[in-house]
Structures are given as structure tokens and as C-alpha cells.
Amino acid sequence: MSDETERAAWADYWTSAGSVRPACLPNARNGVEAAQRRIWSEFSTALKRRAKVLDIGTGDGAVLKALAVRRDLELTGVDNAPVLPKPTKGIRLKAGVAAEDLPFPGHSFDAVVSQFGFEYAEIAPAAAEAGRILREGGMLRMIVHHRDGPIVAHNRARRDALLWLIEERDLLGRARTLALARRISPLPTPAAFRTAIREAQLRHGPGSGADELAEAVWRTLETGRGQQAGEVVATLDTLAGRAGAEILRIDSLLRAARDEQEIGDVSRALGQAGVAIAAPRPLFEEGVARPFAWLLDGRKIQN
């Protein structure tokens, strides 16, 4: 899969506001979001007045929105996705910017931040860029996916469920064949398409992605009886494209997540870029034993 295809998949994800976005976070994991809010609220109070902040891998600007409680801050976010949603007032987002090649002069920012973004980049050159644009004494804080955490486990299970339905059950392929066959005869929708919804729930649990896709396929076939075959096939192809894009995004998340040794490698890369990093700290939801992320804190070394 090309880098352009992956970037397009993320652009589709970040610009899907207003629709149901397939979440990176497990359903009802409010503890993760609460922990993230605490991290950024604490960070905002430590920033100097009128600090210039750069968010790497910003997505929809969630971190910058959290920091925007400080109205004096100058907030900029960059992301490799070619298209990003419209930012909220007081925040500037720049799409199509790779972490490995930041379009800013050296020593431009008082703080560099990232939440589930920096680790998707090639670490050595991205770390060098973060160090280059950070002013002496400037602050760095990053939240990085934990390989053994619940976010990774949730997304891996969702990927497996989608692949089961698409590849093992070939539900989309069989639906496409039926839609084309209806050009000749008004065939009914076989019960197997309806029972696939329940089968997906029993096998992978409700909300796994597989049951949602199976239901969308069934509804497309049912409502498409009076439509032209080409229209139904186009809808099925759209569903297939969205599922494929989600699998692609999850694959990139699984590659980006770090274990204890790998987060140490990230810390060392930042250290080589002139940022003194404290020991990586695991982040936990309240009452949950497994950490969902790593926290990296540092400061640009003063010469």
C-alpha cells in the first residue's frame, strides 16, 4: 500500500466530522479522554505567556483545543494528511506536512506537543526536526501509543473482525454478485445476509465493526431492490472502500505503537536532537491496570 493511499485514508478519517467516525479509542473509554485532558490542562499552566506551540500529527486539533483554554497561546498544528477539518477559532492547522520535514525556521516554537501522532513518523528525522524548531529551554510533551494497551487491543480486534467478514465470509463480494444478478431477475435478499449481522456480534461482539458493516450491506441490498444495479454496486464499493481505509489506518496504528524498549529508542532519538527527556512514564485510566499510552516530557537543552 502506498504512502499516498495511507495519507488519503487519514484525510478521510479527519474530515468525517458530522458522520460516525470509527474511533481509535475503545467505546465508552471515557477514562482515556479524562486522563488526556488532565495531561494537557497541567501542561497549559506550565507554558509561558504568549508561548508558540506546535502540535505534530495534530489530526483534528484535539490537543490544541485543550490548550486553547489559554487564550494568549499561539497554537499551530501540522499533519501529514492532505486534508484536515476546519480549525476552531484561534488555532491554525496545516495539512500535508510531514513530521520529518517541518516548514518552519529553527528555534520557532516555545513548545512541541503530540498526541498519538509523532510515533507514526520516521522517528530519527522527525526527532531531529522537533529539536531544530524548538527554542532553547522550550518544552516538549508527547503521548504515544502503548503497544500492550487497550487502544491497540481494541483496534487489533476491530481489524480482525473486518477482515473476517471481508475475506473469510466474502460478504461484500457475494453482495456485489447478487446486485449484478438482479439485472436479469428480481432476486430476493438471501437470509444469510441478515444472519451475518448476528453472527458477527456473536463471534466478535457488538460494535466490532463487522456487525456494522454486515448491517450496512444488508440494508443496501434490501433498499436497492428497485434501484439500478450500478447504483447498488457503487454503494457496496463505497462500503468496501471505507472498510479498507479503516483497516489501513489500524495497520498504521499497530506499527506506530511502542513497547518499553521502543519508547526508549524514541527518547534517545529526541535526546540526540538536543531535547533532554525524562524517563518515559506509562499513562493509565483510573482503575485500569494496563497503561494506554506513554508520556514523554522534555526540554530543549540550553547551550
Characterise the protein shown here.
This protein is an alpha/beta fold. Helix content is 48%, strand content 16%. It contains ten helices and eight strands. Strands 1, 2, 3, 4, 5, 6, 7 and 8 form an eight-stranded mixed β-sheet that branches. Helix 8 runs antiparallel to helix 9. The longest helix has 28 residues. The chain is elongated. About 2% of the residues have low confidence.
Structural features:
303 residues, 8-stranded mixed beta sheet, alpha/beta, 10 helices
List the helices and strands and how they pair.
Blueprint: H1 3-14, H2 30-46, E1 52-56, H3 62-67, E2 74-78, E3 91-94, E4 109-115, H4 123-133, E5 134-145, H5 150-168, H6 171-181, H7 191-204, H8 210-223, H9 229-256, H10 260-272, E6 275-277, E7 281-283, E8 293-300
Parallel strand pairs: 1-2, 1-4, 2-3, 4-5
Antiparallel strand pairs: 5-8, 6-8, 7-8
Helix pairs in contact: 1-9, 4-10, 5-9, 6-8, 6-9, 7-8, 8-9
Task: Summarize this entry quickly.
With 303 residues, this protein is of the alpha/beta class. Helices cover 48% and strands 16% of the residues. The protein has helices at residues 3-14, 30-46, 62-67, 123-133, 150-168, 171-181, 191-204, 210-223, 229-256, 260-272, and strands at 52-56, 74-78, 91-94, 109-115, 134-145, 275-277, 281-283, 293-300.
What is the arithmetic mean of pLDDT? 92
Radius of gyration from CA coordinates? 22 Å
| Oligomerization category of the chains in this entry | single chain
Question: What is the terminal-to-terminal distance?
Answer: 43 Å
* Discrete helix count: 10
Give helix % range. Answer: 40-55%
Question: Total strand count, please?
Answer: 8
Uncertain segments? 17-23
Most strands sheet: 8 strands, mixed
- The coarse silhouette is elongated
Strand content: 15-25%
Structural class: alpha/beta
- Give the ordered list of helices and strands: HHEHEEEHEHHHHHHEEE
